[in-house]
Amino acid sequence: MTSILRTGPAARLGALLLLLGPLASWAAELVTAAAWTNPRYAPLYNWVSHLGLPERETAFGQVADSPLAWVMNTGWVIYGAVLIVGVTLLLDQRQGWRPVVLTLLAVLSGVGVSLVGIVHGSNENVANGLAVFHFLGAQTVIVSGNVFALLAGLSARRLGLDRARGRTLAALGVLGLIGFALFMVDVRAGIEWNIGLFERWAIYPIMVGHALLGISMLTRQPAQPSDKPEAGAVPSR
Questions:
Q1: What is the pLDDT of residues 45-91, one digit of tens each?
Q2: Which of 41-55, 172-186, 193-207, 216-230 has the lowest mean pLDDT?
Q3: CA dist., res. 42 & res. 111, Å (int)
């Protein structure tokens, strides 16, 4: 089975970046949410994107007051940048369609999550039309990120992963896509029940998948050469 991984220090750096991206985003989210006290931020109720709104306002039916919005927005941009660089360094794009598609999905995800941090979903941006880039970025990262996890799981052997981790990655991708479908129904149908829960259901599997893949690559043992002679080889005397 042909590996689709690069080797050497650059590949290890790529794996490290793949792990650090979601960790940086989670850390930024925790810090930003802790600073939101009026009213207190409720992860199961409040929109994730509201953490990045720089001004106090009522947006999409919820009061947003995020004094450390710049921390969350910086976390998203960092996540997007290190994801693109990490996957590009880790995968060998010369080894067929799988690494090429995985890299393209990572680029889409990285650009998407960066757009979420750069363009706020504020009332002002809704009025001037810029919010479309925020929403496009959010939906792009959710769809491409979960498809990335699913394809990575299906490509487990080429990534040097055992069957259990491959199934876990694939399951994360499916779980995230189900969460996205439920989130869209919740929003489009006007139900708007526990928006934060369904939004995180769609997003967190992506982040767990990136972290799992990164740490798996960092702890992966290189293949050991076999002691058996190749077929047709003449044993040395």
A1: 999 999 999 999 998 889 999 999 999 999 999 999 999 999 999 99
A2: 216-230
A3: 27
Strand extents, DSSP E, the chain:
57-59, 62-64
For residue 92, CA distances in Å to 136, 163, 222 come to: 29, 21, 16
How far is the C-alpha of 217 from the C-alpha of 199, rounded, in Å? Answer: 28
232: left (phi over 0), alpha (psi -120 to 50) or beta: left
**In terms of DSSP bridges, do strands 57-59 and 62-64 run parallel, antiparallel, or are they unpaired?**
antiparallel
212 membership: H or E segment, kind and range: helix 195-219
Helix or strand (DSSP H, E) at 11:
helix 9-35
The average pLDDT across 19-38 equals 95
Please check whether residue 210 is in contact with residue 21, taking contact to mean a CB–CB distance below 8 angstroms. yes
**CA nearest to 108, candidates 86, 137, 131, 88:** 137
Displacement of CA 119 from its chain's centroid (Å): 18
CB 105 within 8 A of CB 113: no
Q: E-assigned strands of 55-196?
A: 57-59, 62-64
How far apart are the C-alpha atoms of 117 and 162, rounded to whole Å?
35
Nearest to 61 by CA among 197, 180, 203, 195: 195
Helix, strand, or coil here: 91?
A: strand
